[in-house]
Amino acid sequence: MKSIKQFENKKVLVLGLARSGEAAARLLVKLGAIVTVNDGKPFDENPAAQALLEEGVKVVCGSHPIELLDENFELMVKNPGIRYDNPMVAKALEKGIPVLTEVELAYLVSDAPIIGITGSNGKTTTTTMIADVFNNSGKSGLLSGNIGFPASEVVQTATDKDVLVMELSSFQLMGVDQFCPHIAVITNLMPTHIDYHGSFEEYVAAKWNIQNKMTAEDFVVLNYNQDISKELSEKTNATVVPFSTSEKVDGAYLDNNVLYFKEEAIMAADEIGVPGTHNVENALATIAVAKLSGISNTVIKETLSHFGGVKHRLQSLGEVNGVKFYNDSKSTNILATQKALSGFDNSKVTLIAGGLDRGNEFDELVPDIQGLKAMVILGESAPRVIRAAEKAGVPYIEAEDVADATRLAFENSTAGDVVLLSPANASWDMYKNFEVRGDEFIATFEALRG
């Protein structure tokens, strides 16, 4: 970690804790800042605030008092989830106090080069693929950022022999200034988080911050399946490296089921360890980064062939009596389930679907579920999902919960079939979150295998 002086004896307010705020506070203390932490959760329910207080950090908990900003702070580091129209943030900006997110701190002290991955879908899978390729090549790829490892924590032990492979959300990228990865990846851009950003244009602008400080010696990897990426490619100083599944580009592309980088064949698309057209895009982005980093085709192919997916994101669990199990509990909407199904032969798939009833019908899903071997349907939305199954002519069974659904799906399957949990619904009718739902699927699979 670089020893920098710019925060010495400066008063800094860390707004919002969670893991990134806690990590930022500790890094700032290490850099000599005078740190105050403000978090909405009451102190007696706030282990992070309690720990920081014991370490000598001033903490203000239970509310966000505007008058706190009268204490002459020179910088605010905010939790990415806190909006810019939050009264504390708005007041800080009004007073001329710079507002950053903790990935900016990580960049300023990083000895390790950074590969930054952002986008609407596929960020976590692509980030994990890239880190795996680096680690399998003998180079050290450290996962960091929005993937669950705060960048300002990871950076403290990273050296110039490591690479920070950093997943970045639009929320994080709104709060950067000097941040500059050596390689940036934008997996795709879809209308999402509009409630936070106000418009798709503002959302894209936040994502595009990733390349603001890049030069021609840096690389931005863009998805040329999208016209918006082609438009953005005209607006950067970085060297653009495109990837595409639909056309031959001067980068990574798919041609006759083979993945290429600049006319050099790397591997067959059906050798990728996780199914789905979206995972071909993720693999192409990974190939572009790997080739730009001097990693061999052998390592790339081996890594992507054995990639089992990210937990709860079309995660391959293995087989029981020749039946393959895939955990895609993260699919909390119709589009995600459509993408998951695109990688399979429907005639061999028993799909587990259903969950929180948000009032929407599932007619959009009908073309994608036609030809399924069967569906196992559960949760509040079951009547709506059943209507879609009936329209698609798919036989279905109703289940009480994910464990029951998994057993029923397995009983309905024979060797060569697939049991796919891809609910197309949020989990909150029955489970605390999609992770708990996926964990129940994994536990039931392990019981069946055992």
From TrEMBL:
Subcellular location: Cytoplasm
Domain Mur ligase C-terminal: 312-424
Catalytic activity: UDP-N-acetyl-alpha-D-muramoyl-L-alanine + D-glutamate + ATP = UDP-N-acetyl-alpha-D-muramoyl-L-alanyl-D-glutamate + ADP + phosphate + H(+)
GO molecular-function term, one example from the UniProt record: UDP-N-acetylmuramoylalanine-D-glutamate ligase activity
GO-annotated cellular components: cytoplasm
UniProt-annotated binding residues for ATP: G119, S120, N121, G122, K123, T124, T125
GO BP, one annotated term: regulation of cell shape
Pathway: Cell wall biogenesis; peptidoglycan biosynthesis
Gene3D superfamilies linked to this entry: Mur ligase, C-terminal domain, Mur-like, catalytic domain, NAD(P)-binding Rossmann-like Domain
UniProt KW RNA-binding keyword: no
EC number assigned by the record: 6.3.2.9
Keyword terms, alphabetized: ATP-binding, Cell cycle, Cell division, Cell shape, Cell wall biogenesis/degradation, Cytoplasm, Ligase, Nucleotide-binding, Peptidoglycan synthesis
Catalytic class of the enzyme: ligase
UniProt-listed Pfam families: Mur_ligase_C (PF02875), Mur_ligase_M (PF08245), MurD-like_N (PF21799)
Keyword Secreted: no
Mur ligase central domain residues: 117-290
Main function: Cell wall formation. Catalyzes the addition of glutamate to the nucleotide precursor UDP-N-acetylmuramoyl-L-alanine (UMA).
PANTHER family: UDP-N-ACETYLMURAMOYLALANINE--D-GLUTAMATE LIGASE
Stated family: Belongs to the MurCDEF family.
Protein's name according to its UniProt entry: UDP-N-acetylmuramoylalanine--D-glutamate ligase
Species annotation: Streptococcus henryi
